[in-house]
Amino acid sequence: MALTELAVRSAKPRGKGYSLSDGGGLLLLVKGNGAKSWVLRYWVKGREKRSGLGKYPVISLSDARELKNAFKRELAHGGDPQGRKKAEREEAARAETVKSATLAKIAAEWYAQREPGWSLSSRRGVRRMLDKYILPSLGRRPISEITAQELLVLFLGIEKEAPHTAYQCKGVANQVFQFAVTRGEADSNIVHSLRGTLKQKQTTHHAAITAPKDVAALMRRIEAYRGSDVVRAALWFSLYTFQRPGEIRGAAWDEMDFGARLWRIPGHRMKNKRPHVVPLSSQALQTLALAAHAADNSPFVFPSTRARKIPMSEGTVLLALRAMGYTSSQMCAHGFRALASTNLNEQGWNRDVIELSLSHSEKNDVRAAYNHAERLPERREMMQAWADWLDGLRGEA
Questions:
Q1: 370 catalytically annotated
Q2: Alpha-carbon distance 170 to 96, whole Å?
Q3: Distance between CA 34 and CA 8 in Å, rounded?
Q4: What pLDDT does residue 83 have?
Q5: Catalytic entry in 65, 170, 232, 244
Q6: Least-confidence region, from 46-60, 170-184, 194-208, 211-225
Q7: Residue among 68, 170, 337, 372 flagged as catalytic
Q8: Using H for helix, E for strand and C for coil, what is the string for 50-90?
Q9: From CA 363, how far away is CA 83, in angstroms rounded?
Q10: Is 167 a residue of the active site?
Q11: Is-same-fold flag (103-194; 212-396)?
């Protein structure tokens, strides 16, 4: 017997759930708490199935009958109403997931996954690019809705003030968008379409020889150098310690801690204005002994040949290299750093240890205040191994 709107409205709970039939498989389910909903019973290949049509009174009796009829028509034409409804629910859920997948959320998850494998300086640098440049304007947007044009406007704005930073930000964005694509939260990596839109990173390389056979030749030329003993000592010290030319030529005896075998460079003499310590190998200490004999009681390790109370001039080591036959495209005073960095990396030393030894700037001020003596045992080992490697080449020469 078909139901009436009054019968549906008047159906009361009975302690446990029960159903009322409207015919044609349409049922009104009445739960123990009085909640009512519509269910359609139907059969596929002799097997009974059920499909929910909605809650009463949101779905009225007449609405439920229309939904029943539409369901059966679709079924009669070979459709799959249950499958369609499931697909619609899944699509709605996916759309909601995509909507909640903001650039900030995806970037945070990407950062958390990659961060353990980065050095401290890399972590700080990436965090700064995200927090200062990329996320403020686009972080709250669903990543799937961000356009290539929006990214281009962002990067070009950064480029006006800091071209290299814009180039780095584009690289970070590329990795974040690719991360989203692999997880199904973005259809494509739109950063790929921005290739060639920013100025390429410009890198200035100091002239340097790096091949071991050329380093051996350099050592032969230093040994044969006919200039002053002070300059020859500065050349050897540059090779063994690979610090900046200004830091070497201005080295003072009161910076040398012979007991600890350390060269303690005060912050005011450093490029980054932070103190730095350099472990001294046995060979570097021998070089200092030779320099002490040639320095003639000067407060500086490598004094000027004209006045012992001032350090050697800025161009002294460069002129010595030219006198030894090296052109401006082959070797310069700064080239000792590239020479060491290249070979130490090729020898497999930890990159962070090399960077610390080179005193490359640490981005974080608080961290940097305590950074100048970080990983000292590893750096001591590396500096001695470096000097031993050079002496091996020297012996082969």
A1: yes
A2: 28
A3: 12
A4: 61
A5: 244
A6: 194-208
A7: 337
A8: EEEEEEECCCCHHHHHHHHHHHHHHHHCCCCHHHHHHHHHH
A9: 56
A10: no
A11: no
Given a cut of 60, is residue 370 above it in pLDDT? no
Question: What does the pLDDT look like over 310-348, one tens digit per residue?
Answer: 999 888 999 999 999 999 889 998 899 999 999 999 888
Q: Specify the fold of 212-396.
A: hpI Integrase; Chain A (1.10.443)
Query: What number does CATH give the domain 103-194?
Result: 1.10.150.130
pLDDT of 278: 95
Mean pLDDT, range 196-207, rounded to an integer: 66
Q: Is 94 a catalytic residue?
A: no
Whole-number Å distance between alpha carbons of 337 and 287: 18
Helix, strand, or coil (residue 330) = coil
The SS3 assignment for 228 reads coil
The answer to whether the CB of 316 falls within 8 A of the CB of 225 is: no
Angle at 33 between CA 23 and CA 89, to 5 degrees: 65
Check if 271 is active-site: yes
Among 31, 89, 271, 309, the active-site one is 271
Largest CA distance in the chain: 120
Question: What is the structure's pLDDT at 90?
Answer: 60
Among residues 131, 130, 174, 132, the alpha carbon closest in space to that of 152 is found at 174
Domains of the chain by residue range: 5-99, 103-194, 212-396
Give yes or no for a contact between 317 and 237, defined as CB atoms under 8 angstroms apart.
Answer: no
Among 80-89, 111-120, 127-136, 281-290, the range scoring the smallest mean pLDDT is: 80-89
pLDDT band at 268 (very low <50, low <70, confident <90, very high): confident
Highest mean pLDDT out of 23-32, 110-119, 196-205: 23-32
Number of neighbouring beta carbons within 10 Å of residue 327? 10
3 state SS for 163-207 = HHHHHHHHHHHHHHHHHHHHCCCCCCCHHHHHCCCCCCCCCCCCC
Q: Domain 5-99's class?
A: alpha beta
H/E element holding 155?
A: helix 148-161
